[in-house]
Amino acid sequence: LGLGVGFIGSGWMARSHAHALHSINHLAPLEKTAELVAIAGRRADQVAGVARELGFARWTTDWRQVVADPEVEVVADLAPNDVHAGPILAALELGKPVLCEKPLGRDAQEARTMLDAARTAGVTHACAFNYRFVPAIRLAKEVVGSGRLGRIRHFRAAYLQDWAGSPEVGRNWRFERSRSGSGAVGDYSHIVDLMRYLAGEPRAVTAEVERFIDHRPDPGGSGQPLPVDVDDAYAAVLRLDGALATLEGSRCATGWKGGQLMEVNGSEGSLRWNMEDLNRLHVFTRKDEEEGLGGFRDVLVTEPGHPFLERWWAPGHILGWDATFVHQWRAFLQAVLENRPVSDHQASFQDGYRAAVVCDAILASAQQGSRIEIRFEEGGSPQAGRKREGGLR
Amino acid sequence: LGLGVGFIGSGWMARSHAHALHSINHLAPLEKTAELVAIAGRRADQVAGVARELGFARWTTDWRQVVADPEVEVVADLAPNDVHAGPILAALELGKPVLCEKPLGRDAQEARTMLDAARTAGVTHACAFNYRFVPAIRLAKEVVGSGRLGRIRHFRAAYLQDWAGSPEVGRNWRFERSRSGSGAVGDYSHIVDLMRYLAGEPRAVTAEVERFIDHRPDPGGSGQPLPVDVDDAYAAVLRLDGALATLEGSRCATGWKGGQLMEVNGSEGSLRWNMEDLNRLHVFTRKDEEEGLGGFRDVLVTEPGHPFLERWWAPGHILGWDATFVHQWRAFLQAVLENRPVSDHQASFQDGYRAAVVCDAILASAQQGSRIEIRFEEGGSPQAGRKREGGLR
Amino acid sequence: LGLGVGFIGSGWMARSHAHALHSINHLAPLEKTAELVAIAGRRADQVAGVARELGFARWTTDWRQVVADPEVEVVADLAPNDVHAGPILAALELGKPVLCEKPLGRDAQEARTMLDAARTAGVTHACAFNYRFVPAIRLAKEVVGSGRLGRIRHFRAAYLQDWAGSPEVGRNWRFERSRSGSGAVGDYSHIVDLMRYLAGEPRAVTAEVERFIDHRPDPGGSGQPLPVDVDDAYAAVLRLDGALATLEGSRCATGWKGGQLMEVNGSEGSLRWNMEDLNRLHVFTRKDEEEGLGGFRDVLVTEPGHPFLERWWAPGHILGWDATFVHQWRAFLQAVLENRPVSDHQASFQDGYRAAVVCDAILASAQQGSRIEIRFEEGGSPQAGRKREGGLR
Amino acid sequence: LGLGVGFIGSGWMARSHAHALHSINHLAPLEKTAELVAIAGRRADQVAGVARELGFARWTTDWRQVVADPEVEVVADLAPNDVHAGPILAALELGKPVLCEKPLGRDAQEARTMLDAARTAGVTHACAFNYRFVPAIRLAKEVVGSGRLGRIRHFRAAYLQDWAGSPEVGRNWRFERSRSGSGAVGDYSHIVDLMRYLAGEPRAVTAEVERFIDHRPDPGGSGQPLPVDVDDAYAAVLRLDGALATLEGSRCATGWKGGQLMEVNGSEGSLRWNMEDLNRLHVFTRKDEEEGLGGFRDVLVTEPGHPFLERWWAPGHILGWDATFVHQWRAFLQAVLENRPVSDHQASFQDGYRAAVVCDAILASAQQGSRIEIRFEEGGSPQAGRKREGGLR
């Protein structure tokens, strides 16, 4: 007796999510097996192959069919940003639990609509900020929560890649504001979420954005360069309660492939992490200095007692990026099966909305050249019924 | 129409191998789907749960049933070392292709028997030296093969862990010579295989072994300490044609969890790799020095053109240790489906035998206190029919 | 026949500068020997000992005596920031060449006064931004200059320390605005200078500053906590011509001791450096990627052909932080001996002034909550007569 | 009133040693100033310039003049290995304290002669194993001494460089056995000394040596290639009391410039260090694991309480390789001024002799192809009168 899952989107994100569902079924099964029922993609030729490969029972080029499919009990939206609100609102209308890739909407307003609909529907909802499910990040959260770092003073994160650095990279949807909402700002909103998760809510932001390449080749092959109207990079400074945060994102940071660097400095200790060394957390405590042996500890987060590790491999055998999807889906499906909100370790649509508010504020600050107050206006009492997980995870 | 696979062994290695088969089926399917037919484990209570979790159709506590199962077309032996020869010889007797965990046998003689049987059977055989399937290692092999490093002068590798460092670790089968053959020497024979794969055949070895803890608690709970009769650590120096190699393995290297460090120095360049940073290869070439900018390049092996990467994630998103099993099984199953030997990038029983010869020589050198010549006496013309892969992989 | 040098200031900076002069005299002598004539410090008991230890002929508690000393031909001001303008202006009045520690003045106005006086005096002047004299930084400058990185798109730097993180650290002059001008902003103006040196002039800045600890113990021992009126940390985003820069400085970044991290990303390549690994420059070029072996090269800048290295040790033997003072003084003294401005690789008072302008803009932006245009108004034709060095340095 | 020092040797080692003496005089003066009296070098044209630059009062091409010079009270031998025994024995004959570069003699027999003479003379003697004076190494010694690591189980060190990797490197004295004694074995005997200092005495060794390039150009310019009769590389495994050690040295390890890597694993903790990151010590303790945060701490050894640091720079400002010479000379001169043996933290001629015994055993083992027992036969009661330093250093 399975739980039917439908996918909107058939690109490499769909592969990652499907891999997670199969892994759960075979390595850490839940009370119900996740059944890959239907998948929607834009191009019939491509989606058919993907469906076969990933093990979906059926495919379509019309996402409405997936949402409406009676065997689809849960909808996951892994499509480009302009195909988030439509399917999600339709699924919520039908009372189906939803998991949506980040950014939730193309801007805060769209995200707010989705959040409101999710609350109205009263079903489980999650925004796929998967880095919360990196064992090293969960351990970081535990360290912060333990008070070992004292009061947080600095949060800094940079998400650096270089895939858009060449002017020969085609003008796909990620370079069109109408489809993506923004460029680096929204695409790297993972670090906005990590800031909120680890260091707290931002109160104000001041920022700059930059576009290095104004036109790019038409991927349709017209030979005409097409205009780019989103940012390639941004840098922001945020004020939190008693702390200062810096965020930077760039698609044109030559040499970086998966450079998601994150650091927290507290009054008593610090943390450091980089996605390219996914399983490692660096932890400093002032207490260690008393004996003349202070220094960041390089903790390889693969020990049996570490978050998420109990069903994986032996110590020292690292997990891949894909493991975060396994952890994320398992937590989400558990909430679905228990018919409750996701735990406060998992990003909900509220978190998706709040990240969008911050992203909008970054863009507004850059445009206005001034500090912008950040206000979350999602109303309600969003935490009601939310599970506070006991123990370590 | 699937290909039936049977597992001997139901521990964490079985999990790793099963995960690989499911991943292949769903991410990079072959012409036939791998069917997980039957699994054998020692304890009925444990193996039943594992079978259910991993998706096996049936389970047993008698490996003979798995081997004899008519739906099992391929046998994978993932059991302790003393349960390698028995099942493998039985499977070969029935003409079934076999994949066996390392070390192939408990000593060279046992491994030789298995190699001979495999040749007689004329079926596909592989020894699970999975690190050959790390993208960074395959890239290393390509770099060596390209001549970019010039003549190899040094190979050095150390496999360092600390799981056995405490005297409270129980005396399981890995500490009994009759069951394991040896301690660190055989368990870490991965680095013997990497040396042969990347730097060539050893001609002579001189070595020392060490045991730090002589008795360990009875895991059966008798309260009586039981004697340990294998090595905890070893260090060896080997002579290759024109090169010097050092190998070291320890289960008592405090602080190391998965420290498999490997380096090659050639007359024109060098390579460096460490399992704890699995996806990274460090590459130095003297040519880079000409412009005053010589230095090891830290290559993140996650680009589309890199070995094995085409069906995985986007650049910068790292693979886990488990990905090596996916690559290994895919290569093995392809050979099975084509009814041919594994390619010369994959370890066969011949490679398993040769590693065992080197391990035996390490132990003999340590005992005799003298240099030991290494002689492979497997006879035959082992490469006949072996596929030399074209292109990069 | 020597060149008489006088020091204003007798703290640890005086030790660093004196060490440099002795090293030059004994390892890389100039046409004239630097003679350590006189040193001024606040406390008679302390300065007497320092003078003896460092080899000064005489000492005083009145800086005017040093400036006026007829045997003092060059004045170096290494005192707290509020004792910069006084001695420097007096020395310039007497036509003596001057080297002044950073920040040049407590604000741009004070720095401007010093710059104007230096121009009027027509003598050699230098601001001690010593990191320009790190071999790895000079190599970075050469790489940028060679065009190998293409167009600069990102500059990011952070100067992170934790010495002020504890509230028990006393309220010394660095915490008083009237004496220091600012806190982290001015103290870490090294990174402002490195940005200008490596990436170009900033056009606008938007920033935040933060103070974590408002009162600190009276170092005089009154037992009364004294107020702090400077920043402990700041973060700034700057717009350069076509590039985005981020600067961050903190005295409260727990765990960091000498974390001066700097990175440049260009359209064709990148550079990375950290003071804690002083002799190492990481260099990436897109060209290296063509062969599938792209990655940051970790260049140990100790080769004979590297900047400044010819009179030091053999390759692989690293230089200390103090070596930057040797290089800095040697360049400055050569300019003095040739009676010319310092080369464009060395910071002059103009550079000191410009850094002060940027620092003031950072503070103003934080206060106003808006983007501030940066305008240098030093007038004149400052580069006139400036030596453009040939070759590599 | 100074203490007259004479140098035998005028190459880059002489520069390093002279720099140390000047630094002591000016930064951390002793009760008597070190006077650089006389220096001997082979080539008149070269030594005259060096003498002037380094500040020696006089120079000569005949080392006997330096030794006999009545103003030379201490003799430092920094010449090639074949010019160690002669000057040292002559100096001891005159009752002058001596500091000799490593290796002490070309073999154990020569070293023994020098040790015997030193004992007979009853003066202070030191062998310049300067790495004992790296702050991070001294801290390592303290950590080992504190028992924090438990019982030592592994010591591993490799000294890797690539300066001799090209066949175009000329056949200088380092490639002639009659002048150097050996190649990599003796030249990198630093790691033999570090093993003895940190992990204890070796009891037996088994080793291999290798020569990659048999002929090299005549540096005299004859155009005839000259034969090389020493090793380019070696690898050795040593048995200590209850521990296993591996040593490796190579001049042909392409890509390495100053790769002196050292690691100690004990039953309770571990240490790691690399000369290329001179000021950093990595420290692991099992105790840190109890809280799930085990990992090597990266200790930047620049804090005020760290060994040797009190007279240097502020935290985070790294020391260069040359600082080890300052510490070494200061300790040696203090012993000379107190007319006592060097402390047990400094290598004496006994340590020089013992290192030579180990080097000879490495060469013998490689030649014989068997394990060699290591026996120190220096007789006497060498520690008599040796100062055991209190406190941290």
Structure, briefly:
The structure is a homotetramer of 393-residue chains. Chain A has helices at residues 12-27, 44-54, 63-68, 85-93, 108-121, 135-145, 177-180, 184-187, 190-199, 323-337, 349-368, and strands at 2-8, 33-40, 58-60, 74-77, 98-100, 125-127, 152-160, 202-210, 215-217, 225-227, 233-240, 243-250, 259-266, 269-274, 280-285, 296-300, 372-373.
Structural account:
4 copies of one chain form a homotetramer. Chain A has 11 helices and 17 strands. In chain A, helix 9 (190-199) crosses helix 11 (349-368). With 393 residues, the first copy, chain A, is of the alpha/beta class. The first copy, chain A, has a 9-stranded mixed β-sheet with strand order 16-15-14-13-7-12-11-8-17. A 6-stranded parallel β-sheet of chain A has the order 3-2-1-4-5-6, with helices on both faces. A two-stranded antiparallel ribbon of chain A has the order 9-10. Chains in contact: A-B, A-C, A-D, B-C, B-D, C-D. At the A-C interface, strand 7, strand 8, strand 11 and strand 12 of A face strand 7, strand 8, strand 11 and strand 12 of C. Strand 16 (296-300) of chain A pairs antiparallel with strand 16 (296-300) of chain D, so a sheet runs across the interface.
How many individual β-strands of chain A? 17
Strand fraction of chain A equals 15-25%
Count of DSSP helices of chain A?
Answer: 11
Envelope shape of chain A: globular
Q: Biggest sheet of chain A: strands, sense, closure?
A: 9 strands, mixed
Kindly report the oligomeric state of this protein: homotetramer
Question: What is the mean pLDDT of chain A?
Answer: 95
The largest beta-sheet of chain A arranges its strands as 16-15-14-13-7-12-11-8-17
Q: Uncertain segments of chain A of ≥5 residues (pLDDT<50)?
A: 381-385, 388-393
Structural class estimated from helices and strands of chain A:
alpha/beta
Distance between the termini of chain A: 27 Å
**Rg of chain A:** 21 Å
**Which two chains have the most extensive interface, and how many residues on each?**
A-C, 49 and 48 residues
Provide the succession of SSEs of chain A. EHEHEHEHEHEHEHHHEEEEEEEEEHHE
Helix content of chain A: 25-40%
